[in-house]
Amino acid sequence: MRKVGALTLTLADVAGGGQPYTPRTVARETVWRHHAGQPVYELVDADGAVHVMQSYSDQRVDQDEAALAELGDVLAPPDGWSFRVRVPAQDLLMEAVDGLAVVVQDERANTYQRAQP
User: Fewest Cβ atoms closer than 10 Å to its Cβ: which of 27, 88, 97, 105?
Assistant: First the structure.
């Protein structure tokens, strides 16, 4: 096991009351690689920023990797946000910048990292 980041949580977050689709800044030095030709699952926020899924959760809903492509049918993102699936032609690298990454979670506790423009 290895530590890949540190996240400061509010008491509401710890108690399970944190709001989905709320950006949080995480201190970490990581690079996530999504391989070309494999699907990536993305949230696009109201400002057009893309958030790429880095992990899915089965804590709130029984889901597995095969179910991720159907998330667009079940998620309820805020107005102006959307979910999409795409298959990149080249490897997609998601890097923390200056030791920081911006992440959001959906209502199923799946975690996405904001892509750099």
Answer: 97
